[in-house]
Write a structure and sequence with these properties.
With about 300 residues, this protein is an alpha/beta fold. It has ten helices and seven strands. It has two domains: about 170 residues, Rossmann fold (3-Layer(aba) Sandwich), CATH 3.40.50.150; about 90 residues, Orthogonal Bundle (Adenine-specific Methyltransferase, domain 2), CATH 1.10.1020.10.
């Protein structure tokens, strides 16, 4: 039987699958030569996590964190109870497919599950299943909550979305056996850092315009003050001898004079890479934009060519 490679189990705004090749170019060569700890303070859908676990079997331990409690609950459930989760997802998928030719009933079913999710009264496994169901059936796989922490994304237009990807859930569960799962502020991960640690940081992006923000990933906004706090965190990592790479939006896409990140990370190396933007209600506004990859590494040839 062919071993299934784990991949992200969610659709995710800003997922890093499309720029992993660019991130890979910047990884320090020492990661191939010795065991190390891998940390993601903002794990999201885990695209980089699963790529790292596949390509670096010498990772002695991986630590993931996110402030989104609902998301972290899904990771914990997949790690410990994949079969029970799959059983619930299979029921959701069967029912959703049955309603394909009855639009009103399909919408009613979607919004009923959304209401259940927002009540947060179900057991943790069912709540994780609701999270995945909504992710696979909502508009563009967008995760957005209001100030009351209520998921408020409308139903999407997918006819037969793969709500239950059984093989991948089992593969993800196997991968998570060597992963420590945390939930909280990104600074909490500092306790696990030493000089044999590599950290990849993918924080909530600073919007490049007023219309590019899709409201909130949690009920707490990630403000400019948090971006500055994150830069100070990266400086602490640097002082500890830890190598890190951080991604964020390139504000010069819309304003060539907006050098917020260029100035903030001026002591580190910055590279601009191409990334496709898929989440936009207007199809013709989806396209290629520049994003930033920032690192504390020195003397990287690719940077010298790309700046």
């Amino acid at each position: 039987m062919t071993k299934i490679t784990a991949k992200p189990f969610l659709k995710w705004a800003g997922g890093k699958t499309q720029i992993i090749d660019e991130i890979a170019k910047l990884l320090p060569q020492k990661l191939h030569k010795t065991s190390f700890t891998y940390i993601e303070p903002f794990v999201g859908s885990g695209a980089v996590l699963f790529w790292m676990l596949k390509n670096f079997p010498n990772i002695k331990t991986a630590i993931i964190n996110d402030i989104n409690e609902d998301l972290i609950n899904v990771y914990k459930v997949i790690a410990k109870n994949p079969q029970k989760l799959i059983s619930i997802l299979e029921k959701y998928q069967k029912r959703y497919y049955e309603l394909e030719n009855n639009g009103d009933a399909k919408k009613e079913y979607y919004y009923k599950q959304r209401d259940l999710f927002n009540q947060r009264k179900e057991d943790k496994i069912t709540h994780a299943a609701l999270f995945i169901f909504l992710n696979k059936t909502c508009f563009n796989g967008l995760y957005r909550v209001n100030s009351k922490n209520e998921f408020n994304v409308p139903i999407g237009k997918y006819k037969y979305p793969k709500i239950c990807d059984k093989e991948n859930i089992f593969a993800v569960s196997a991968n998570l056996k060597k992963v420590k799962i945390l939930c909280g502020d990104f600074e909490n991960t500092l306790d696990y850092v030493d000089k044999n640690t590599f950290v990849y940081l993918d924080p909530p992006y600073k919007p490049i315009s007023k219309t590019s923000s899709f409201q909130s990933y949690t009920m707490f906004d990630f403000t400019d003050k948090d971006q500055i706090r994150l830069k100070n965190f990266c400086k602490k990592l640097d002082d500890l001898g830890c190598t890190w790479i951080l991604s964020n939006s390139d504000l010069t896409n819309t304003n060539s004079n907006d050098l917020f990140f260029d100035n903030l990370y001026s002591e580190f190396l910055i590279k601009r890479v191409n990334a496709k933007r898929f989440i936009n209600a207007i199809g013709n506004k989806r396209g290629t934009l520049k994003e930033l990859l920032i690192t504390n590494q020195k003397n990287i040839k690719e940077y010298a060519e790309g700046l």
